Known about the structure:
Layout lengths: L2 H21 L30 H4 L1 H9 L7 H15 L7 H8 L6 H15 L12 H6 L5 H12 L6 H20 L13 H15 L15 H13 L4 H10 L4 H16 L6 H6 L1 E3 L2 E2 H11 L3
Antiparallel strand pairs: 1-2
Helix pairs in contact: 1-9, 1-12, 1-13, 1-15, 3-15, 8-9, 9-13, 10-11, 11-12, 11-13, 12-13
Amino acid sequence: MNPVQLDRVVGTMIAQAAGDALGSQYESGPTLPDEVTPRFGVGVFGHGVGEWTDDTSMAIPILQILAQGRTLEDEAALDEIVVTWRDWSRDAKDVGAQTRGILSRLASPTARDAAALAARTHEASGRSAGNGSLMRTAPVALGYLHRSPAELAAAAGRVAQLTHWEQDNVDACALWCLAIRHAIDTGELDIYAALDMYDPAARARWLPLIDEALAVASHPRDFAAENGWVVRAFQGALSAVAHARSLPDALFRAVRGGNDTDTVAAIAGALAGAVFGASEVPSEWKGMLHGWPGIDADELARLAMRAVGA
């Protein structure tokens, strides 16, 4: 990989963390006008200035596994991710309701049991498409950067269904990871390319949703009312990145969208980082980022590089 591509690899994780931390103090709040420039502050749930929330924290165990050169086909690796999530969730400042419901009810902290419980939870209610799977999916794109698109899509779906069973989660995570992969390779945003590997029914489902997000006048505010749903979070984040002039602009747009601001900005940050690169993240932002013991922006960069084998 050349230095520009590696900058995009690092940008994927650092911009995700930055978007997450930036959106923290605006969570559950109203949409903001374009004249307002979001600032880092103390989060709604008590996260400190520059501290990322559960969105990036749940990505960390996935990133660590991939940085070790392991794969997500390895059941033992998935088990370690679930154990780490469960232990982290016990005293985390905030955990998504759907995720907490799965992790707190596990009879044994294994991937097999987590996925089975997620499936039963979905069957009981008929829905399980919260945005908690999409917020943590970016590391999968890095660890599978040199694998086939089908392998990447399958791995993204496998991790999504550890807590979020519904097919919308599987599709959204796969599409997002494939878009990150394409952006790292080319520096371009092209979400449509990922649809080529889907069957006609899935393309018919997602094509109008993507068109809506990429419409010339679209803004994350358009999707704020339901952006706790993975589909609207996907659309809001995509709109933020597609119409941004710079990486900070993408994160500002995501936060101005309102409601689940940290999650939408974290999702947008991962893709924006893959498009623009870590060099476009302001240095003062990098210096304040934290949220997991022993991990700051420098360590995020190191783990990201190791995940792609660099």
